[in-house]
Write a structure and sequence with these properties.
This protein is mainly α and 412 residues long. It contains 21 helices and no strands.
């Protein structure tokens, strides 16, 4: 590839990653469209047959392609209308894995993980600014950004915040502690959005960060203890401030989880509805166990099993999904759709397992599990893959971590 084409393709790669790491909480679906356009342009401008073919040989890329194929089969075979079959096209982003790898391989980045951490830090900060605009200027009750929901806004902000946190390790400058602000910005964005599930996502991502990088902290245990103390202090201060300012709803997730673990009756309205969704959805699977009811027929298929209270709530709200990603795929695509869900969900982990290991591979693992864990837990009480942005983020950021965060791309 000549230098001009390579430079143009690399520039498109930077645009794509900026859209998906800096702008998701600000622009929502528009960020996905920018990334999609840039990736498709890169496929044309920087087309490299050998590089593209090599990318298609990766196991994780094939897993995503297989997931698309299975979903297409499920939606076509189980279609009740022509539109039901066409919903398979919603998952075309799964086929962008190989073109994304080809595009990102043209980028010349000295320290890939640091580059990703800087973009993620900017993205978490942008989430706070977008949230402040929504609350203070637009007068909204819950921050969400453009073309977004408050739940997705909070999930993205929290994932970006913890992706930024690896910068504390890979950045060797005296300014490396600025990356600690990533989870702080994520927490502030969650409070602005009033989203409870994202607080649980943050807890999981904190555990992932500690468990995947503990060997690094053993050698710097004093700094680790100081960071832990500061983190606990920030969460406590945030909880107290949120209570005073009327943004305490996200911390209600802790009491809900406590009730569920203790087996106490569920009194929270949203949680009670979700539990009825899930029990009704499980019963609906038996009506179409192999190929499902269709992508946008999740609620319709479960309606006969809803309680009277949930039916009354549905008459007012008109939800279009079952509020649980794995269950939604099982209802929509049956066993075939359920297998497809796990294929693309586990593809990033397969990418790490099969990638070359070496000094710094724990950084790649941490980023991979942050991405997978964030989307998985976020999807346990909502739905993400029904929209373009989560699919684009999941596929393209997997490619970015694989290409830019391997041992050879790090200064460690």
């Amino acid at each position: 590839m000549n230098p001009i084409r390579q430079g143009a393709t690399a520039a498109l790669g930077h645009i794509t990653l900026t859209a998906l790491l800096v702008l998701p909480c600000v622009l929502g679906s528009y960020a996905a469209y920018i990334a999609l356009l840039a990736t498709l342009l890169a496929l044309v401008v920087g087309f490299d047959r050998a590089a593209l073919f090599a990318a298609t040989q990766a196991g994780w890329v094939r897993m995503m392609a297989a997931a698309f194929a299975l979903l297409a089969v499920a939606f076509v075979v189980g279609a009740k209308t022509q539109q039901d079959a066409l919903y398979a096209l919603d998952f075309l982003p799964l086929l962008l894995a190989a073109p994304a790898v080809m595009m990102l391989q043209t980028m010349r980045v000295a320290n890939g993980p640091q580059y990703l951490a800087r973009l993620a830090l900017a993205g978490s900060a942008a989430a706070v600014l977008a949230g402040a605009y929504d609350l203070l200027v637009l007068g909204l009750d819950r921050a969400k950004g453009l073309e977004n929901s408050p739940i997705h806004f909070a999930d993205y902000a929290m994932m970006l915040g913890f992706m930024a946190l690896v910068g504390v390790i890979v950045d060797r400058s005296r300014w490396r502690w600025v990356y600690v602000l990533g989870p702080v910005f994520g927490l502030v964005a969650v409070l602005q959005s009033g989203t409870r599930g994202a607080l649980l996502v943050g807890g999981l991502l904190a555990v992932i960060f500690v468990l995947t990088l503990w060997r690094r902290w053993i050698r710097r245990w004093r700094e680790a203890l100081a960071a832990l103390a500061v983190g606990v202090a920030i969460v406590v201060a945030a909880a107290l401030a949120a209570e005073v300012m009327g943004f305490a709803r996200p911390f209600g997730a802790l009491s809900v989880v406590g009730d569920l673990i203790a087996g106490r009756p569920v009194t929270d309205y949203s949680t009670a509805l979700r539990l009825d969704f899930y029990s009704s959805g499980l019963r609906a699977i038996a009506d179409a166990p192999w190929f499902g009811h269709g992508w946008h027929n999740q609620i319709k298929s479960a309606l006969p099993y809803f309680s009277e209270a949930t039916l009354a709530a549905y008459a007012n709200e008109g939800w279009g999904f079952i509020h649980n990603e794995p269950l939604g795929f099982a209802i929509s695509g049956g066993l075939v759709g359920f297998v497809a869900y796990w294929l693309f969900t586990l593809a990033p982990i397969a990418a790490h397992v099969t990638a070359p290991k070496g000094k710094g591979s724990d950084i790649r693992l941490s980023l991979i599990l942050t991405l997978v864990g964030g989307f998985f837990l976020g999807g346990m009480t909502d739905v993400l893959m029904m929209w373009e942005l989560p699919k684009m983020m999941f596929v393209i950021l997997t490619a970015a971590i694989v290409v830019l965060a391997g041992p050879r791309q790090q200064e460690v």
